[in-house]
Structures are given as structure tokens and as C-alpha cells.
Amino acid sequence: MQKDSIKASLGDFIIDLEQGLLFLNGEETSVEPKVMELLLYLYDCRGRYVTVDELHKHVWADRVVTDTAVRGTVKKLRVILKDDDLTNPKYIKSVAKRGYKLVCDTNILDSATVSSVEAAPIEATPVQDSIPIEIVQPTFEPQHKKQRNVITWGVFAFLLFVICSFSLYLNLNDGPQFAGEASLTEFNGDKRGIAVSSDGRFIAFTGRHSENEAQQVYLLDKQDGTTRKLTTKATNARFLSFAQNDKVLVFSDTVTGASSLKLLPLTVSEPESAMVTLIEDKYWVSDVITGRTESEMIVKVGHNAGSVLMLYSLDLESLKLTRLFTPTHSDEFIIASSVSPDKKRLVNVILQSGKSSLVIHNFETQLDEVLITQNELAARAVWLTNNDILLLDGAGLHIIDVNTGESKQVRDNPGALIWDIAASQAGHDVVAIRKSQERANRLYIERALTSTSEVSRLINTSPEVTSMIFDPMDENMRWVRVKRNDVNYLGHLNIKNDQLTTYFETEDKLELLAAATTNQHLLVKEKHRLAVFSMKSRQLEYFTADSSSSSDGVFYQNDQAVLFGVQVGGEWEIQKYDIESATTEVFVRHFKSIRPTKNGFVAANYVGDLFLLSPELEVIEPLGHRINFEAIARWHVKQNGVIWSNFDYLKSYVNHIDLETREHTRIEDMFYSLYPRISVNEQASHIVYLSVQINDSAIQQLYFK
């Protein structure tokens, strides 16, 4: 006799705790395995809140997923439980920063109770005691008959395996196959954003031909091979898309703090003369794609500094903006998006904690599902069919099966030369921007921090040198980051004879932040973790967790410690890391970054506003300026002056404040001519920065069959 399973009531439902089954009114309810695992774990933890991190550890212990995936699974469970009133939940209550709790009544049920609830109502028939019971004797099959049955079933199982394998082979080869590529333009000028018309004939792109030129909008006609320049007055044209049956182009003029979205009619001879502004004076506007209808655009918008970048639906007729998709965690960033050919789903490339995820958003159910998560940083994802997505990352081009999540690489991408891809709405035409070289030719420029800001030195390096900081001990040496064949190195460069010595290598993203005054340690950020590189051990010593969000750091107390910013429970604080003992303690709360001065500190809050602090860490006064926390921006306090870089993707700016006189000066140049990753020497007399030349690029057609 089979032993009864342990069952419990969950409000109106009954759950079989051993078999993982859910019943409502005697009928089994279909539940996905991962959703059932979540329900069982919440049941085991009933009476208390369960954090998202705890769910990662216990329910998703077998794989790494984003917080979006966890919350999407919770949404699925709420749908099954019909728990749609979030203000008065019947089953699952959620509280920010505390997590989720099962709040419905739960009771263990005995077998009689379960039977009465689960059994379908039938008319009972009395049983008389006098009815004789017939006892049936068991029968036994001969041994040879059993063997014959075993053989028969074995053959059947083998044939079934062959059929399934052949069917799987057909399915794997049934999707799109990469068939080759061809150049549509020469390598002339820098190209950035790209879009394809619905019929594949026209290709729109943004670009420029010289370092001092702003990016404009261009239109390539594949039929006759001609290219038209559609704008001459765009401030910084960047992202674009066709709309309204290819009769118009919508593009973003992306300038941090003053971004706009504009429409170019393609039915007139001079489109710029009839240009319409759709959105203006936004902090950030980017990633323009065609929506579910011809009059809908999907665009990424940030309303102010520090706000989360969200996807909005824009109706081109009413100009109404409606929020469409929001990252669920503060360290999640939407990299790119694309709408499926049947207009039912949206794929988002999400960056979180150094990992890239493809998240499928269902427009009808409003549920999100993580398709894949990988360590390689993804740049773009476009739909080839309703079942296949083309993904571009540093490794190459991959076709992702939307139903299974299976990925197959169809083309490699050495040197990340393929910069961007785009597809027509039906996915039939795919084009790419291909750079002529991995990194553009460059110079490092040393410039005086004076009113004249004259250039004092030009340092000619190979394109492999991707960042540079001053050596605090030797004016002829520079600490550098070098990238070769997708590997990052920490090196020491002699700028007199170009001799380079490397000390450390990693395939992960690496930022060089500072050098100790004795040159015994370097402060770096590998992926999203802060670390000290020891010249003695030749190893990285991490002091932030893999799962934490950190800002930057600075050497402190004669290079014996590091002050750095870290987010704890949603709030920023400054912590101090002791290098010798490898211990960490809270230094000051409510700030994201800090620098020591001669008589105290300068600290920045979470949006970058600067404050002068006393030696006792009390706020003396706000300085009335704001720094930039983007990864390529830098800020320093040297010789009683605050120096920081800022940028708006059109230009870069280097600011200097004298803490005694409060005098403010600024140097500015085009964004790539003065790359904002600056370094300041110990005397605070000069800065060094990267100046990048044009990287010529071409447009290519990618063929799939």
C-alpha cells in the first residue's frame, strides 16, 4: 500500500509537500518546477520574510540568475495563486529590503481531510455486510515470457531514443544559419548607431569624419549605393530607428543633462528643414527602437542625475510617454532592447554585477523571464525570428533559441571589431558596423592646470595602452593598463624609451585607479570589485564582495589603508580597509566617495554633490559642485585643490577648485579628444589624459539562411 503524502492547506489551495503538487477545488494546478521550488521554500520559511539574496542561495543554488528573474518567478507564483492585490495580499506579502513572506493560513491536513477536499463529489452507495468478497489468486508468467517482454521493451526504448535524437538534430539545424557577410561601405569615418528599414533597402546610421565634428545622421540606399547626410546641426546624434512605415527617422541627440529625441521626415528633399522635436531637455535619452505599432517608439530615458534609466513607450501622435520596463535593482542597467517580429515580446540586455543577461519581457502577461546569463559583456541583441535572437558580445555572434536558451556561436569577433548590429522588423535583413582596428590610434597628452592650460608633453603610444596614470616617484615612468588579445595587463611604462614591464594579467574588465606614493601597491577595480595589487606578492587582494556595489577608493594614512565607498542595504557608506591586517570597518556613512585633504576631507554623496568635512568627519559646508561617478570619470584632491573630470558625450571637462580661495577653473575639449579618465601628478600642476583619433568603420551585410 502506498504511503500517503504530507499535505497542507494554503488558503484556498492544498499543496502536496512531498510530490510538489498544488490543488484547487480538487483539481491539480499546473506549476512550473522553479515556481514550485519557490513556493515550497516560502512555505518552509512561513512566519518570516525571505530576502532576494536568500532565494538566490537556496532556490537558485544550481545556477546564477538576476534579481529580475527572481522577482519574475514571484510574479508567476502570484498569478497562479490569484494574488493580484499587492496592497492587500492574500498569499505573498513583499516589503522593500526585507523580502517576501507567506501570509495565508496554513495547516497540515490528515488523510481524511485531504480525501474529502480532493475527491470529486459522487453519490454514495451503501455496502451490505453480507455481500461475499471474491479473493483473486495471483498468477505468474513463465520466465521466457518475461525475458521476451524485456527484449521487446528494450527495442522499443532504443527506437524511441533514435527518433528523439533525430528529431533533436533536426530542431537544432532548423533555425537560422549564418551564411556569410559583405561590405556595403568603405572604412571611411566613425560610425555609431545603426538601423535598417523594414524592407532592408535603407540603412540609417550616425557618425562623423573628423575629431572636431559632431555626430550627424546619414542614410544609405543599398539599391544605388549612395549615402545622404540628413543633418548638419545635430548636437550629438547617437541612436536612431525607422518608424511609420519607414517614412520617418527618429534619433536621439544624446548630451548628458540636455538630451532630446527628434523626428526626420524622409518624404521631403531636406529632412532637417522639417525636423520635429519629440522630447527635449531630458537628462538622458538613448536606445531608440521601433515599438509594437508603427506609431510607437521605445526609448530609454533618465529624468535627472542619479535616476534609474527606464524604458518608455512613446506615441508619435500624442507624444505621450508611458513607462514600459524598469530595472528591479539599483545596479541593473539596460544595455539594449529589441521587439520580436510578432510584437508580443521584448528582449532586454541587462548588465548586473559584471554579468550580462537576456531578459524576455512578455507584453501580454507583463512577466519577465531570464533567458541566459553570461560573464561576457553583451552589446546588442536583435530578433531573427520569433524563436531566435542574434546576440553580439566581445566573443562573437551567437544565435539564442528563445524556447530552450541554447546558444550557438556562428561567428567569432576577434578584437571586438564588430561594434554594433541591427535588424529589420521581421529580422530578414541584418547589418553590422565593423571597425577598421580594435582601438583607434591615440596620444596621451600632458597639460598644465593653469589659466593657459598649455600642453607640456605628447606621449605617443601603441593602441594597446588603454589608460595611464602618473608614477608618484619617477617623472619618466607611467603606470598603464594594456590590452592585448582581450587580456588586460598592469604595466610600468618608460615614456623615454617605450620600455614596458607587465606585472599582472586578467581576462576580466580592469580599471587602474591609483598608485601608492611608494609604488608598492596599486588600487584597481576588476569587473565590479575593488582590490589592491601588491608589487611584493604580484597578486590582487580584494576588499569588496563579489555581490556588493562599490564606487572607487583612495590610499589613506601613508598608504597603509584604503578609503572606499560601498552600498549596504541600499545606502552608501565609506569604509576603511587596512592593507596589513586585511580588515574593514565603517569610516563614515551617507557618502559614496571620499578624498583626504590637508585639513580634513572632501566627500561626495550618492548623486556626486561635494562637501567639505572636518577631521572629525562633520560636514563644514557644501562646495556647490558635483562630480561624475561614471566608470571613465575621475576625481582627485591634491595640494589643497579638487580636480575632477566630467563629460556629456559631446565634450569633456576638467574642473579645478582651490579649497582656500574657492576659485573655479575649467578646461574643455571634444569628448574623444579629451577622454575623461584623467590622472593628476602629486604637485597638482599637470594632468595626463587620452586623446583618441577617428577609428574608421564600415557597414556590412550579414546573411542568414
From TrEMBL:
<feature type="DNA-binding region" description="OmpR/PhoB-type">
    <location>
        <begin position="5"/>
        <end position="104"/>
    </location>
</feature>
<keyword id="KW-0812">Transmembrane</keyword>
<feature type="domain" description="OmpR/PhoB-type">
    <location>
        <begin position="5"/>
        <end position="104"/>
    </location>
</feature>
<keyword id="KW-0238">DNA-binding</keyword>
<dbReference type="InterPro" id="IPR011042">
    <property type="entry name" value="6-blade_b-propeller_TolB-like"/>
</dbReference>
<dbReference type="InterPro" id="IPR001867">
    <property type="entry name" value="OmpR/PhoB-type_DNA-bd"/>
</dbReference>
<keyword id="KW-1133">Transmembrane helix</keyword>
<dbReference type="GO" id="GO:0003677">
    <property type="term" value="F:DNA binding"/>
</dbReference>
<dbReference type="InterPro" id="IPR016032">
    <property type="entry name" value="Sig_transdc_resp-reg_C-effctor"/>
</dbReference>
<feature type="transmembrane region" description="Helical">
    <location>
        <begin position="150"/>
        <end position="170"/>
    </location>
</feature>
<keyword id="KW-0472">Membrane</keyword>
<dbReference type="Pfam" id="PF00486">
    <property type="entry name" value="Trans_reg_C"/>
</dbReference>
<dbReference type="GO" id="GO:0006355">
    <property type="term" value="P:regulation of DNA-templated transcription"/>
</dbReference>
<dbReference type="GO" id="GO:0000160">
    <property type="term" value="P:phosphorelay signal transduction system"/>
</dbReference>
<dbReference type="InterPro" id="IPR036388">
    <property type="entry name" value="WH-like_DNA-bd_sf"/>
</dbReference>
<protein>
    <recommendedName>
        <fullName>OmpR/PhoB-type domain-containing protein</fullName>
    </recommendedName>
</protein>
